[in-house]
Amino acid sequence: MSRVIASLTLAAGLLTSASVSAVEISISCSALGKEYEICKQGVDAWAQKTGNTVKIVSTPNSATERLALYQQLLAAGAGDIDVFQIDVVWTGILADHLQDLTSNGQSVVSQHLPAMVETSRVNGKLMAMPWFADAGLLYYRKDLLDKYKRPVPQTWSDLTETARMIQEGERKEGKGDFWGYVWQGRAYEGLTTVALEWIASYNGGTIVDEKGEVTVENPKAVEALKTAAGWVGTITPEGVLNYTEEEARGVFQAGNAAFMRNWPYAWALAQGADSTIKDKVGIAPLPKGGADGRHAGTLGGQLLAVSKYSKNADAAIDLVMYLTGQEEQKRRAVQGSFNPTLVSLYGDADVAKANPFIGDLADVFANAVARPATVTGQNYNKVSTEFFNAVHQVLSKRAEPAQALNRLDRDLKRIKRSGWQ
C-alpha cells in the first residue's frame, strides 16, 4: 500500500511540476491574407508538443503602423509580446530591445538563404531568425493575354501598352470597373518597396548606396517616377493612392485587373476554391525599366525575434526555433505559399507541386534589391518615410518628379549628417 501511495504521490508531483512549468507565450502575427490562420496552426502544433499555450496578438496590415506599435511597446519595456514577427528592414531599428539568438541559431543559420541571414544580423549578432522570404512579383491574367494575343510584358513600356489595350477591350464589353494594373500606392513602407523596384529597374540606384551616400536624385529615378505617375488615373485607379497589399489583391482577385504587383503570398489566395480567377493567373519577374534596365523585385520577408523583456525567454526562443525549422517552413510553403528561407526546401517535390513557380524564385531572391536598411541603421525608418512621402506626392500630382527628388535629396542628407547608425 505504501508503495502505491508513494507512486501516486510521485505522479501527482510530476503533474504539478508540469503544470507549473507550462507557460503562455504571446506572438505577434500579421493577418495579411492567410498569415493569421497559418500562424495559428503552427503555434498550436508547438503548444501541443510542449504543453505550453500561445496567444496570438493581431497587428495592423500596414507595415508602418505595425512598426510604430512595436516601438511603442518596446520603448516602454513592456513584456506584452514575447515573439515579434518583424520585417527584414526592422532588425537594426529594434535590435536594442531583442534577445541575441546567436548561440541558439548558429548550428542551423547557414542552411538559410544568405540574403535573409544578412537581414537578421546586427553587428555580427543574430538578433532574429529568418521565417519566410519575399520579393515583389508581377501577377498577370493568362487568359486575357491569350485573348488579346499579347506576351508577358518585359519592360514597363510593354506593360503600359498591354494594360491599356486589355482595359479598353474589357470596358467595351461592359466591364466598366476594369483596370489595367494595380499595386500598392498608399504612403507607407509598401510604397517604399514598390517605388524602389521602379527606380532600380531603370538602374537608378537604391536611394542610399552601400557606402551611405544619398543617390536618389538622378535622371533614371526621375524617369521611373514619371512613368509610374502616368499610370494613375489611366491604367491604374486613382484609389491606388490608398492601396496596401490587400486592396490591390481584392481588385485583382475579383477579376477587375489585368496585372498586379504583389508578394508571393497572393498566389495561394488567387488559386483558392472561392477565387474568381482560379487557374487563370501567371507570375513573372517585374518588368525592366527599358532595354538596358533590369528586373528588380525588392527583397522582403519576415523574421522572428524574441523580446528582451520576455518573462519566458527560453520558451519563446524554443517557439522561434520550431516555427523557423524545416517541418514548419515546409508546411507553410505548401499550405500558404510562404517562401521558405531554408535553401533545401526549394528542391522539395511537395513544395514545388503546391507552388509551380518556386524554382524560379530562388533566382528572384538571389537578385532581389535590398532596401538601404543596413547602412542607415536606426535611421532607416526616417529615410523610408521621407522617400515614400516624396513618391506619394509625385503619384498624387502634387509635385513633379525632379522637384520631389531634389527636396528628398536635401532631406536625406540632413538626416545623414546626424549619423546613419
From TrEMBL:
Q: Which GO terms describe its biological process?
A: maltodextrin transmembrane transport; maltose transport
Q: Which key words are in the record?
A: Periplasm, Signal, Transport
One GO cellular-component annotation of the UniProt record comes to: ATP-binding cassette (ABC) transporter complex, substrate-binding subunit-containing
Q: Which domain of life is it from?
A: Bacteria
Q: Molecular function (GO) terms listed? A: maltose binding
Q: InterPro entries from the entry?
A: SBP
Q: Where is the signal peptide?
A: 1-22
Is Signal one of the keywords UniProt gives this record? yes
Q: Name one Pfam family in it.
A: SBP_bac_1
**What does the similarity note say?**
Belongs to the bacterial solute-binding protein 1 family.
Protein name (Swiss-Prot/TrEMBL): ABC transporter substrate-binding protein
Source organism: Microvirga vignae
